[in-house]
């Protein structure tokens, strides 16, 4: 049984933080639509509510800037979130994920269905599923960024809509194997290069 690394959320619940190989193992068990949704959530690191809102507003995506511009919208993001409006800068994989999401028009099902699909896929891939949640995609991406780009913490915190204290408290930046870091660099290629 595979037990991924984890971080604790503000609610006290442990959430998985995947390596790129662990992500790939779960992705192999997802159907195409959930893989497309998972890529959007992972590579943009948007909260589910933000991604659902974005799914109705493709005009927020600007390929020439390699970014999604999330405006200040009532009810969007967490209540305590300090940055309500932000630019979600994208890696090469992020640009592809956004384009694929809109070209396939998959939308988002109910949150419970998303969660269930990832738990089922992780179980089939041999994971202990108690840490598996859709929140893990955001935690995973931001943790990868903090690991690969330790000198760009302020840019990452703006990208995530967090302050530096929250970033350091709720994301994982160490404890990775060298191979994992090499794979993370490949996953993040082109990030922040507008």
Characterise this structure.
It contains 9 helices and 5 strands, in the order ββαααβββαααααα. With 194 residues, the protein is mostly helical. It has helices at 20-27, 32-44, 48-55, 92-104, 111-124, 135-148, 153-160, 164-170, 178-187, and strands at residues 5-8, 14-17, 61-62, 67-70, 86-89. A hairpin with a 4-residue loop joins strand 3 and strand 4 (67-70). It starts with a strand and ends in a 7-residue tail after the last helix. The chain has a single domain (5-185), classed as Intergrase catalytic core (hpI Integrase, Chain A, Orthogonal Bundle), CATH 1.10.443.10. Helix 2 crosses helix 4 and helix 2 (32-44) crosses helix 6 (135-148). The strands form 2 sheets. A 3-stranded antiparallel sheet has the order 3-4-5. It has a two-stranded antiparallel ribbon with strand order 1-2.
